[in-house]
Amino acid sequence: YVPFGIMFLVGSKIVEMEDVVLLVTSLGKYIFASILGHIIHGGIVLPLIYFGFTRTNPFSFLSGLITPFTTA
């Protein structure tokens, strides 16, 4: 029941807002910043740390994970 309760709590706050466009643009900026942060962290920072410890290509290691991820 919790997801429905949270959905209706957020929905009630959205209905109370006068400028929904401001909410959507703010939420879009937050989502963009979050995705960009994940891309930078997962695509640059973590491979550099992996390379620093193992001195091997991190992307060859990640390409080997495609099969287990698709199976899961």
TrEMBL record:
Superkingdom of this protein's organism: Eukaryota
Pfam families per record: SDF (PF00375)
Bilayer topology term: Multi-pass membrane protein
Molecular function via GO: symporter activity
SUPFAM superfamilies per record: Proton glutamate symport protein
TM segment ranges: 30-53
Subcellular location: Membrane
Keywords recorded for this protein, A-Z: Membrane, Symport, Transmembrane, Transmembrane helix, Transport
GO cellular component: membrane
Family from the record: Belongs to the dicarboxylate/amino acid:cation symporter (DAACS) (TC 2.A.23) family.
Protein name: Amino acid transporter
Originating species: Cirrhinus mrigala
